[in-house]
Specification:
4-stranded mixed sheet; 133 residues; alpha+beta; 53% helix; 4 strands
Length: 133
C-alpha cells in the first residue's frame, strides 16, 4: 500500500503533537527514517508543505505573501493583519513581505491559492478589460 503525502503529514503532526523538544526531535528522526526506508525521499518538500497547511489550519494560522512597491509602515500592516484575521477567522497572521517596483503602487496579497490584487497595475488591467468588453 502506497502512503500519500497527506497521510505522511498527518502522521508527522500526530507524533509531534504535545511533545517536548527532545521527544519531537526523536519522532522526526524516526519519521525521516521511515520515509527513507519507503524510498520516498523526493516527497519531503511536499510532505512539509502539507504538514504546514494542516498545522496552520488546526491552529488558525494564516500565512500571507504581501507584495508592494515599497515597505509598508506598521499601521498599514496592522490593518491588513486585522482584515485577514476577520476574513479567515484566524488567530494569527504571518506576513512575508516582498518588494516589487513594477506594480506602481497598492498591494497584492497571496493566501494559499487565493490572490487579491489591489495594485494600481492590477486595477488598471481590470478597468481596461471592463472597458474593452
Amino acid at each position: 500500500m502506497k502512503i500519500t503525502i497527506n497521510q505522511y503529514a498527518r502522521t508527522l503532526l500526530e507524533v509531534t503533537e504535545n511533545k517536548s523538544s527532545r521527544e519531537i526531535d526523536q519522532a522526526v528522526l524516526n519519521f525521516v527514517q521511515i520515509v527513507r526506508k519507503n524510498r520516498q525521499n523526493k516527497l519531503f518538500p511536499k510532505i512539509l508543505e502539507s504538514f504546514s497547511n494542516i498545522w496552520n489550519s488546526k491552529n488558525k494560522v494564516v500565512e500571507v505573501e504581501l507584495t508592494s512597491k515599497e515597505k509598508l509602515d506598521n499601521e498599514a500592516e496592522k490593518k491588513i493583519t486585522e482584515y485577514i484575521k476577520k476574513k479567515y477567522k484566524a488567530e494569527k497572521v504571518v506576513i512575508s513581505s516582498k518588494i516589487d517596483r513594477n506594480i506602481l503602487g497598492g498591494i497584492i496579497l497571496k493566501i494559499g491559492d487565493e490572490v487579491m490584487d489591489q495594485s494600481i497595475k492590477g486595477q488598471l488591467k481590470k478597468l481596461n478589460k471592463a472597458l474593452t468588453k
